[in-house]
Amino acid sequence: MRVLISENEISERVKTLGRQLSEEYSNRPLTILGVLTGSVVLLADLIRATSVPLRVALIQAASYRGAETTPGQLTINQSLVSDLRGRDVVILDDIFDTGNTMVGVYEAVRGFQPASVRSAVLLWKTARTEVDLEPDYFGFSIPDEFVVGYGLDFNDDYRHLPFIGVMEDEDLKRSGAKQNDC
Ligand code: IMP
Ligand code: MG
User: Which domains does the chain have, with CATH numbers?
Assistant: First the structure.
């Protein structure tokens, strides 16, 4: 596997994003809404890089991919979401690929009547955007390659890697049969 973004580069960038959010949301009722499962590593690091009071909430989005690396049907489970009414919500996901997940989560969040909604992702595959939405905050724009690590998985593996790595063709071929990609 090839390292695309090192642990150190991620750490520096996440600290910068944390400072930026702290400036823009000081004196605002901020809730960071992590999209399970891919955002968990970023969520843990980002909230510790902020210096303003905030709440953490979770929502689950899954698109069945089989052993493919292309997205399938999107399912959103909002049963974990706490009250967002009147709050300034920042939806946090690992990656903005086609953007369909973010659009689906936006729609779900609007139903909770928040004061505002923005989106933040670590990675943005700019060449693959299919929706009329762009992330408000992003860590890195990346080329159209399948990446893993720092929360991102392939077939539910590799989330624990501290860096972002590119899956080589032989890694992809060694995949299992099914992926329920959350
Ligand atoms: P989107 O709906 O196409 O934007 O896809 C978003 C979801 O697809 C992310 O939350 C990831 O779970 C998954 N995804 C997209 N690209 C990658 C990738 O390169 N590696 C791992 N997961 C990915
Ligand atoms: Mg995901």
Answer: 2-175 (3.40.50.2020)
Cβ(38) – ligand 1 distance below 6 Å: yes
- Residues 86-128: tens digit of each pLDDT: 999 999 999 999 999 999 999 999 999 999 999 999 999 999 9
Question: Within 10 A of 114 (CB to CB), how many other CB atoms are there?
Answer: 18
88 is catalytic: no
Which amino acid is it at 38?
G
Q: Residue 141 is encoded by which pair of tokens?
A: 């724009």
The pTM for the full model equals 0.92
Per the residue annotation, which of 45, 88, 94, 97 is the catalytic one? 97
Residue 149: CB within 6 Å of ligand 1? Answer: no
| Ligand 1 neighbour 20 (Cβ under 6 A) | no
Q: Tell how far the Cα of 97 is from the centroid of ligand 1, in angstroms.
A: 5
Task: Summarize pLDDT for 5-58 with one digit per residue, the tens.
Answer: 999 999 999 999 999 999 999 999 999 999 999 999 999 999 999 999 999 999
Give the integer Cα–Cα distance in Å for 4 and 139: 13
Q: How many CB atoms lie within 10 A of CB 27?
A: 7
Q: Are 90 and 137 in contact (CB under 8 A)?
A: yes
